[in-house]
Amino acid sequence: MYFKQIRQNAARNRRGNGLFFGSLVIAIIAFYTLLSLGGQDVVQFLSTIESDAVAKLLGMLPIVYAVSLFFVFFLVYFACRYQTDSRRRELGLYLILGMKKGRLFALLFAETLWSSMLSLLAGLPTALLLTEGISLATAKIAGLGIIGHRFSFSLNAVLWTVCGFVFVQLLSMLIICIGLGRTEPADFFRGGDTGRQAVPSVPGSMLFLCLGAGFLLLAYYLGIFRLRTLHFSVMLAVVVLGIAGTFLLYRGLGGFLGRRIRNGGRSKAGLRTFTARQVQENVLSQHRSLAVSSLLLMMALACISFGIAMGLGSSVSSRSADFSLFGEEAQIDAVLERQEIREMTGESYPLYLSHTGNSRGSFSEGREHIYDTSALEAALSGVSGAQNILENVQDRGLEYVIAESSYNSILESLGRERLDLSGGKAALYSSMANDGDFGSMLQEALSQHVSVGIDGSDYELLPALFYDNIVADQAITLYLGWIVPDELYAKLAKNPEPYCRNVRLRGDVVEETGLMQAVRKMDALLSDTGIEYDSYLGGIGRNLFYTVASCYLTIYLGALFWLIANTVIGLKYLISQRRTRHRYEILSMLGADRDSMHRSVKKQIDLYFALVLATALASGAAAIVTMFTSFARLPVGVSVRKTAALSALALISFAGLEALYIHIVKQTAGREISRSERR
Q1: Which of the residues 57, 196, 587, 653 has an alpha carbon 20 to 30 A from that of 68?
Q2: How buried is 531 (Cβ within 10 angstroms: 0-12 exposed, 13-18 middle, 19+ buried)?
Q3: How many structural domains comprise the chain?
């Protein structure tokens, strides 16, 4: 009988609070998805080529897991608290009929464990299917192909998910039971009104509101216009002002709403004044929760936007070659003539890259040549923040040169238009174009139509900066290189021999097995030849690592922040509504019809969520602009339109999910009003 009662109570709680049961299932899915990261195809692939980096990433997971537990605790606590508040009369009846508090608490803990088990049974299979879908999609994008996919089930992830989830469930219920233990049986039957609110004076409310708005605007200004160089003091000021401003804003918002209601007069028809007063009371009593929820939503928007942009940025590594072979031409030819290697290789071309023997001064004599970079230096001197680049150009001069024919071969392999350096032209190259503002500042200088002097002749620099990979892996880092016509290269190069031979795999081989599988097979063949080579695996390994580390984790945290923030907002409102449900009974006795009360509740929820979302969207927009103008600039080559389109899609999805969540909260609140009428 006792266990039957446990199952019945748990089933009734799930039916009455399906939204929060669903939130718990989503939390379980998030836990397993995070903890099973090490078993996914791409991570296992990365561990073979970037073992140290992957080890560091996996070493971070316990920290992220602990942070997730901390936030999920609040989600679970408010859900359990809402369920317990909805059963106060039932619990009081148990005590009056003679049930001891210890047995009552054992009943609540047993119900919690039973609900946890059902949540886990629903969440874990869903999480397993989701992780398999993510693994397949990521493997397809990365070129591993379905052939390289293996079904993965992480028992360790399941155990930690179960332990963490059950722990926060039981801890939440323990805290709630401690409070219930201090409550007399008769108190369970009282309405539990919100109590008197410490309403600040109108001048005090306006002061809080103005200070909060001023702090937020100052934080936005500092973040967008003064955080370009990542000064710790400025960053600290942005964080402190943003948090303090949010709390002060909501602290003063209740009094401001009260003033607006009074100034609106008494001519409002229907339940408009009642609706406004309800919202004002919720803001006054829950201003800290509103501030925390707004900050969490802001962090969710920032994390998701950051994850999308960094995911796109880390994939912008141009695949100019699959392998770069080093050695004598005869040795390379002999390797490429092997049958099993010849069957896999497509086009190949020599890369002519050489040191010039000159690396000093804007107008200096090298071993045999004279260089003049004064025009480029003058352009850089007019670019804000380019002092370091200017000094490097002055020190390095024309240090490295690349033959036009070699770079055209790279462009052809990428399906891009060839360079034309005829008529006294040259181009500037840097493999560091994606490093912060470096590329954009050089691009700004080149747009001023500058030239470089070589042996008394002026060569006009193309207005575009070139940054495509010149080898399979970025084994060399060229701060600055100069792409010059072949005839000029022959005169300037200190070593006229090819630097390496770039090789690409055949298209049909890649199409058949997938890029990564084909590269790994070729890598195994070349490793037996004894020749020195670099593989595309190294570069793609780092790219995939950055994608997983930045994109995966930040989007995961963003989704978690969103879920917790909305759960806190919704539950706080519903708890407050449950405590003031007698007011709706009084309205019904005074003649208010059901439709009017339902419209009032829906309007309250709309306003309640709007107050949180308005600040969150403003702060989120400022945070996103701050990120992409300081430490998370989009790399050169990343399509701004594509990034904006994906961010817009994410925002639309965010709005759709938010609307769905608000709709479900409205339905739950409507059922509560209907129950009040029946009483």
Answers
A1: 653
A2: middle
A3: 2
Nearest to 43 by CA among 640, 34, 352, 482: 34
**Crossing angle for the helix pair 594-628 and 640-678, to the nearest 10 degrees:** 160
How much is the pLDDT for 39? 67
pLDDT of residue 631: 59
Backbone angles phi, psi at 111, to 5 degrees: -65, -40
With contact defined as beta carbons under 8 Å apart, do 206 and 214 qualify? Answer: no
pTM metric for this prediction: 0.69
Confidence of residue 365 (pLDDT cuts 50, 70, 90): very low
CB 72 within 8 A of CB 560: yes
Name the helix (H) or strand (E) containing 650.
helix 640-678
Same domain, yes or no: 327 and 183: no
Contact between 208 and 112 (Cβ < 8 Å):
no
Best-predicted range by mean pLDDT among 213-217, 518-522, 541-545? 213-217
**Predicted pLDDT at 317:** 52
Q: What are phi and psi of 454, to 5 degrees?
A: -135, 115
Q: In terms of DSSP H, where are the helices of 143-231?
A: 155-181, 202-225
Contact 429, 392 (CB under 8 A): no
Query: 124: buried, middle or exposed (CB in 10 Å: 19+, 13-18, 0-12)?
Result: buried
Q: Which residue has the higher pLDDT, 578 or 466?
A: 466
pLDDT at 211 over 70: yes
The closest of 478, 488, 490 to 396, measured between CA atoms, is 478
Considering only CA atoms, which of 532, 531, 502 is closest in space to residue 323?
502
Predicted pLDDT of residue 469: 82
Q: Residue 206: CA atoms inside 13 Å, Cβ hemisphere, count? A: 5
CA 341 to chain centroid? 42
Last residue of a domain, one of 190, 217, 234: 190
Query: Residues 524, 377: one domain?
Result: yes
Which range marks the domain in which residue 467 is found? Answer: 323-539
Residue 366 has pLDDT above 50, yes or no: no
d(CA 426, CA 384): 25
CA gap 521, 540 in Å, rounded: 16
Q: Report whether 484 contacts 452 (CB < 8 A).
A: no
Report if residue 584 sits inside a domain: no
- Give the pLDDT band of residue 312 (cuts 50, 70, 90): low
Among 170, 190, 210, the domain boundary falls at 190
User: What is the residue-wise DSSP string for 261-311?
Assistant: HHHT-S---TTHHHHHHHHHHHHHHSHHHHHHHHHHHHHHHHHHHHHHHHH
My answer on whether 180 and 328 are in the same domain is: no
Mean pLDDT of the region 129-140: 65
Mean pLDDT over 394-405 rounds to 86
Residue 56 has pLDDT above 90, yes or no: no
Residues in CB range of 329: below 8 A, 6 or more apart: 350, 498, 501
Longest dimension (CA), the chain: 105
SS3 318: coil
**How confident is the model over 116-123, as a mean pLDDT?**
82
What is the CB neighbour count within 10 angstroms for residue 550?
A: 18
- Does some domain include residue 632? no
Q: Which helix (H) or strand (E) holds 614?
A: helix 594-628
* Residues 373 and 518 both lie in one domain: yes
Q: Would you say 389 and 436 are in contact if contact means Cβ atoms under 8 Å apart?
A: no
